[in-house]
Amino acid sequence: MSNSNGTQAVDRAARLLSEVVHASSPVTFTELTATCGLAKSTTSRLMLALERNGLVRRDDHGRFLPGEMFVGFAWRGGADASLVAVARPFLDRLGKATGETINLGVASGFAVEQVAQVDCAHLIRGTNWTGLSVPLHCSAQGKVLLAYGAAHLPPRLERLERRTEKTITSLVSLRVELAGVRARGYAVSDEELQPGLIALAAPVYRYDGTVVAALSVSALASRVTRDSLNTIARRCVAEAAGLSSALGYRPRARKFAP
Amino acid sequence: MSNSNGTQAVDRAARLLSEVVHASSPVTFTELTATCGLAKSTTSRLMLALERNGLVRRDDHGRFLPGEMFVGFAWRGGADASLVAVARPFLDRLGKATGETINLGVASGFAVEQVAQVDCAHLIRGTNWTGLSVPLHCSAQGKVLLAYGAAHLPPRLERLERRTEKTITSLVSLRVELAGVRARGYAVSDEELQPGLIALAAPVYRYDGTVVAALSVSALASRVTRDSLNTIARRCVAEAAGLSSALGYRPRARKFAP
DNA sequence: GGACGTTGTTCCATAAAGTGGAACTATCCT
DNA sequence: AGGATAGTTCCACTTTATGGAACAACGTCC
Fold this sequence. Notes:
The structure is a homodimer. In chain A, the strands form two sheets. Chain A has a six-stranded antiparallel sheet. Chain A has a two-stranded antiparallel ribbon with strand order 1-2. Chain A has helices at 8-22, 29-36, 40-52, 68-75, 78-98, 140-147, 171-184, 226-246; strands at residues 56-58, 64-66, 101-108, 111-118, 133-135, 187-190, 197-205, 211-220. Chain A is elongated, with a radius of gyration of 23 Å. Chain A is of the alpha+beta class. At the A-B interface, α1, α3, α4 and α5 of A face α1, α3, α4 and α5 of B. Chain B binds a DNA duplex through α1 and α3.
């Protein structure tokens, strides 16, 4: 190891902690000593220290679980704050592959909020969408969030705002469109939000199969052919799947008997 | 301290980690040395060890943030698994105060899933609801989840299933009922799910104001008067608020200048 | 219910690992 | 450029972690 001087105890404690946190079920003392190859006494001392500091806690049977520090962090929404950090590499890769503008959006109220952006290579006039909200019914991201139940239209809505002449304005047509999105696995907004702008978006899932964000590629409509759109779609869906997997999503996970 | 033998390094590291995780914004190296009163060299070594083990990471400015281990835990839904553990004391207290059966339910599909239960003192025949699903429209918990947007009825639904003669079966009446729930801050199901059974539920919020669960009190209708129902409602709402607060919810939080 | 196997904690001599001051390097600010 | 601030590496010193063994606490199996 390159530089592990004067931190044996901390490294060992971290190793133990890692075992507990990454395990899917409570971990026993004996499993820990075995996995980490430590003496019982050492394991005991370190685990007591971790427990004393709220890093692990013990269930009724004395098995170890992640402690208050982890649980508190998770409940305080620590994950949300780091969505962008986790997503960054995937956005970058998608940007490199397509050369277009990449955005990550989440549902916020009755709109899509952009939380991260990668600017395209051959950009004419860069709009920074970060922090902006776009409508649900006429953006690719919005359609994804609607289609997978991550966003909802305001109740009792009769008509959808017309943004361009291609905008879908009837609830019935939108419902059909959303079914298509679910069937294809991605959504397209072809000049429905802004004339000359085409965008494509794919869903990002988290551990429990819920869609939490939409990953989109936006380009000038004039620059995109049917073929290149297919290529972009494939890349975009792939990166969205990669990000989902980084967020703990395991598509149709199957449990095997132990 | 009672028993802190042979763990100085781990304790110090945990202290540093705690500072980073509980801080609301990235923490600088200097702040850490100051707060924990450690030598620069010690702090540096310990923080490098924590970083190497994925417990903290550093932003562009070298400031410390909770690391992959925390973020991963949060994204994998670690919080959900511990909802029951966090909630237990609140359920117990509510059970003691009312002497009735207490349940905690979350939205799951188009129903309410019971994740925890405390049985009532003067129980005639104990039904264990844990793991069971109850409908959204005729249970107190379901009404709460619907009213606060934590659950949604299946789309294109025309009519609601009639469970008893008091069940609300029209969408319009239900919409009115839900407005009432939001106004009162709690929901009641008076023999709408099962004859002879009355239940009351209050919303549980998390850090971002989203409702994540419903806390309910169920009793035999014959045993409840208008007065006692009011008392129960007050206790139930209070415990739900306590739990919300434990989950990081701060009602209309106000930030003061530092 | 008593004796054993299993599991986890405490004790203690040993030496290995952590400590902090100082020297050194990187970075920022004017 | 030059000085201040922030952070890392070095190294002699000794405090602190280590692991074997004894001990304590449960479960559980006849």
